[in-house]
Amino acid sequence: MLIMVVCISFATIAAEILLRIGLSRGRSSGGKKGGGQLLFIALALALYLYGYLVAPLIKLAVSRTREFQADATAALLTRNPEGIANALRKISGNSVVQTLKSRETMAAMCIETPLALDKRGSFFSKFSGLFATHPPIEERIKALMAMDGHRS
Questions:
Q1: CA 20 to 30 Å from 21, out of 3, 32, 102, 120?
Q2: Is residue 21 part of a domain?
């Protein structure tokens, strides 16, 4: 995660520097046509796009992958994937915590996201998995049961 934060920070700082260089060249060139100015601004916009849209999605995907790895490690350590799956089933019985509903920053500290997501199949719910810090409990249980030799 530290590497992801450094990459995001580098991209946004580089974008800010390139944008300032591109805008300052436009003022200082007077009446000259500056082709380099557009290049700097285009690179800055590409880095902003990466830093504010693409990199956070990658960071969330890494977080979801780490949850699967943590489940697999726990199953290998205990040598009981079915027990870990049963624990996840029990925990998921009431995963919406009322006091955390408005605090999206605390979602990463919970076993399953405490934010009540729309499960009806709306347009946004199809993309809500991209912004989740944890994979759905059902997928985690399926992966654990596959480790135990069960087919689902």
A1: 3
A2: yes
Are the CB atoms for 135 and 64 separated by under 8 Å? yes
Reported as a single tens digit per residue, the pLDDT across 19-74 is 999 888 766 655 556 678 889 999 999 999 999 899 888 888 898 999 999 999 99
Can you spell out the DSSP letters for 29-49? TTTS--HHHHHHHHHHHHHHH
| 134 lies in the same domain as 88 | yes
Task: Note the pTM of the prediction, 2 decimals.
Answer: 0.65
Range of the domain at 118: 80-152
* Residue found by looking up tokens 């347009």 in the block: 123
Higher pLDDT, 129 or 12: 12
CB neighbour list of residue 8: distance below 8 Å, 6 or more residues apart: 51, 55, 56, 59
